[in-house]
Amino acid sequence: MKERIYDWFYTYPIQLVLLHLKSNLFLLFLWLISLLFATGKVGMKMGWIYLMLTPEYLGEVGFWSFAILGAAFCSFLVTWNITTYILHSPKFPFLASLQRPFTKFFMNNSLIPLTFLIIYLWKLVNFQWYYECWDAARIINNVVGFMFGFLTTLILTIIYFQFTNKDIFSFIKPDKEKPPNLSKTIIPGNRTLTMETIKSPNYSKVRSYLNESFRWRPVRDVSHYEEKYLLKVFRQNHVNAIVVQSVSIMVLIITGYMIENPYFRIPAGASWFIFLSVITSVAGVLSYWLHKWTTIFTIILLLIINTITKHDLIDPKNKAFGLIYDKEPAEYTYERMNEIHSAKNIKEDKKNTLHILNNWKEKTSKSLLRKKPKLIIIGTSGGGLRASFWTMQVIQQLDKATSGKFFEHTALITGASGGMIGAAYYRELVLRKKQNENINLLEEQYLEDTGKDLLNPVIFTVVSNDIFMPWGRFEENGQLYPKDRGYIFEWQMNQNMNHVLNKTIASYQKPEEDALIPMMFLAPSIVNDGRRLIISPQGVSYMATPPHGPQMKEIGSDAIDFRKLLEKQGADSLRFTTAIRANASFPYILPNVALPTEPRIELADAGFMDNMGLNSGFRFIHVFKDWIKENTSGVVFVVIRGSNPQDKPISERQGFIESAINPIRLMRRIVDVQDFEHDTYLSYSMEIFGEDFIDFIPFTYHEGKGSNRASMSLHLTRREKIDIINSFYLDSNQENLKYLKDVLR
Length: 745
Description:
By secondary structure, this protein is α/β, with parallel strands linked by helices. It is built from 31 helices and 19 strands.
């Protein structure tokens, strides 16, 4: 028994795995992170699992999308084998004496990829059966598609290496005598292959290898061959590596340039594997040529890139589409802020907003027996497509249950990220209906539109375009803008929502003034100083500072009016979809939006400062409290939220490591902290207006029994959509619906 274990341990596949664990941790990490993505252990909330398990091509998840994914996976597998072959084959010179040495290395180096493939296929079947609710025939079709792409690429690779991968007998005429010491073991040693190391009696621990017939064969001693012939066998594969690497890079660049062409927009998961192919090749080249200098070289290279981009020698930053960047930038200083938020500007903006509120009152009072209507403010939270889909579901159902009174009584919409996408879409549909378009606001298709995939095109663009510093450009209003993942996000969102949001923010100025639709405040966070940028077609300088009396002369601005800051840079021409995107720019998934200011400021997700928009809502009612008290019968905050802090478990006792990372974990609780602040603001508001004057009605998404919470990604599975729809009918939400109906009577 001991002998069998001993023999098994010294087989080539096992020794290769041990060698990877010792020398190739970075390359192994690429397999590990892909496996963690595919199994949902990492990035589940952000939807990385969907890249692997529900790839889309031409808007469909099916045979061909999986075939492309399988082909890309095979390309990564081949590249990984080529790279490790170049790095480590000289440590196993017996390969040079074998026919088709790379093929044999490939087979013996398959334990790690094979383990990944088995786990992946098992997870694929399980996921599609449970989460997508697909039948067995469709799942089998997808698996067959994946294997078709994988095997087709593998066969083409084998054919290529059949003609390019030679053994030592292709370079010399071997002696007729049988090589001595065929069973002599050889041990890994120096990177540089020399006759001295080859002839070392303990050069390799490998005793046997697996051949193409899946039979075990003893290794051969090659010490009788000349070094130059052995090196020729191994060096020939450098050319193969260059070919594979070049093809991978060209595929990424071409597909990245053609991102608007649906036929070139391969599944994001496929782009991920091709990206890993490039990373593997580059890592192999650096490791082979630089040896121990690889780390320091990489650090220096990153510093050079940072310096180049910092001084705008190359400008990869995302821009706000519609703004002017080739003129003098706007001044972003404390002096300029004070000028923008002067008493004169605040007075003028308040006057214009009061005009809008009077129009709103006139509109709503017509349908009421009482003279004073309820003023509704919608606050909707972030959370990717989950929040967008949930927001549309709630607004549709509230409007249905109240015969349209709910949205007609809404004066202001605020919020963050995905929630504002759904709210903006419904608001636009209401506007078009009032402009005599044939629109049924309760049509299920509009709900489906808000749940259509955005993740695949965004991640595809990241790996095929953005990592190479996006060089594609498009022109709008005489300005050139980069085609990056921000661009493709807007492009796909317009596709999903029938291009109804493809307009400038200025196009909403008159409809808001006439109270045809509610006002909407988009408030992305300014990365540079933590302020909020209030984007609205109206003047909103009064939102920049907390309401204060004349005795408080020194009070800082925690927000800034977008239109006044960038008036000379074409603020009114800003794309509305860009404003929505800036409000939903979750780090790394979407790029920060750089504005034409000096110093340059960048915008990130509104959720960092005000995830449900309630800070904006509370400030608004405090600014106009006198008018609200006189002209309304109360304020109703309808909060559409994707989660509840009470749903999250309280941390249990922690060990040393958990305690050490507690400060970092606290940063992840930023939304929970905002909930506590909102409760404080609400209590202050009730004290000012009176408890009976303010109603706070939340509609919260709770996952159903036996269901996992829908992810906060830009992709939703069919089961997640069903779960979100059903959440509206849970007892807590139905009780709040009943209360809202009573309030609006």
